[in-house]
Write a structure and sequence with these properties.
The protein has 300 residues and is mainly α. The protein has 15 helices and no strands. It has one domain.
Length: 300
């Protein structure tokens, strides 16, 4: 059932990607505020069920207080921001590595029942396309984004064009390898996704392309999986998901807005939005991934 839903979702995302990139209007702007609103609402909503996963983890360790979970989760987020303030390049470079694995894994793992180490390597390499494609197709715009969030773009990984091209093609080959290893009719979903990602990154501003991918492919797919866990009847699970994820989504979105207003007193709109989106996502991604890892290792 989940494979069929993901297949239809990927087809729809590809069609919408083609339609959007067909209009010059969408190619001429990063749509800063649109990206901020989408990421702060749809984008972060797939992590808004982490409190339920936290409850599962507490149960595994025979702990009852949700305050313990919230304190630990928040502490990791604050730590991420502190590391960014102290060494932005280190934090953001680590985030790019972790995000590549995260995107590659969560967009593909529905095809596999068992977890193997070599698959984790392929997941990481597959996810590199999210970083390498914008660098390859819109180098200057992508470097400008990295500069505004504090990344040292003089590193060879950003200056060596052959390295960027190599990462790009290795990522594509890894996607194909995952499809062949899966031996599943629905594995073609990954190729469909790849086409959509390449189309978006070729025609659109890097920030807009990333936002569309993050909100409507990555987050949507993860949310679909969560909905299936809540209720096999999708019409019912959508309502349950919205009801359960809405409170934390509103809280997190509010923090994004407050952070944006605060940053606007020091930086321009472009820098402020980029910082809120990417540093904010880093602060949410690390505790999210740690939670997923702990559940996986302790019997989800």
């Amino acid at each position: 059932m989940i494979d069929k839903i993901n297949f239809r979702h990927s087809i729809l995302f590809l069609i919408v990607s083609i339609l959007i990139t067909s209009f010059d209007y969408f190619r001429n702007s990063p749509f800063l505020f649109v990206c901020l609103v989408l990421v702060a609402s749809i984008g972060i909503s797939h992590g808004a069920m982490d409190n339920m996963k936290g409850a599962q983890l507490l149960k595994i360790f025979n702990m009852k207080s949700m305050l313990t979970f919230y304190a630990g989760y928040s502490a990791i987020s604050v730590l991420v921001i502190c590391v960014w303030l102290l060494s932005s390049t280190f934090l953001l470079f680590l985030f790019l590595l972790v995000a590549s694995y995260h995107f590659g894994k969560e967009d593909s793992e529905f095809l596999f029942q068992s977890k193997k180490f070599f698959l984790d390597i392929l997941f990481f390499l597959k996810g590199l396309v999210i970083i390498s494609a914008p660098l390859l197709f819109h180098y200057t715009d992508t470097i400008n984004i990295f500069n505004t969030i504090g990344m040292n773009t003089d590193l060879f990984i950003f200056r060596d064009y052959s390295f960027i091209i190599s990462c790009f093609f290795i990522s594509i080959i890894s996607s194909i390898a995952i499809v062949l290893i899966a031996r599943n009719l629905y594995a073609s979903i990954l190729i469909i996704d790849l086409f959509a990602i390449l189309i978006l990154n070729y025609f659109l501003h890097p920030l807009f392309a990333f936002t569309l991918y993050f909100c409507f492919l990555h987050s949507a797919r993860h949310s679909i999986t969560l909905m299936q866990d809540l209720d096999k009847d999708l019409s019912k699970s959508i309502k349950i998901f919205i009801r359960k994820s809405l409170p934390l989504t509103i809280v997190t979105a509010s923090i994004f807005v407050v952070a944006f207003v605060f940053l606007m007193s020091e930086y321009d709109i472009n820098s402020s939005i980029n910082k809120v989106i990417f540093v904010g996502l880093a602060a949410l991604t690390f505790p999210h991934i740690i939670l997923e890892y702990m559940l996986e290792k302790n019997g989800k």
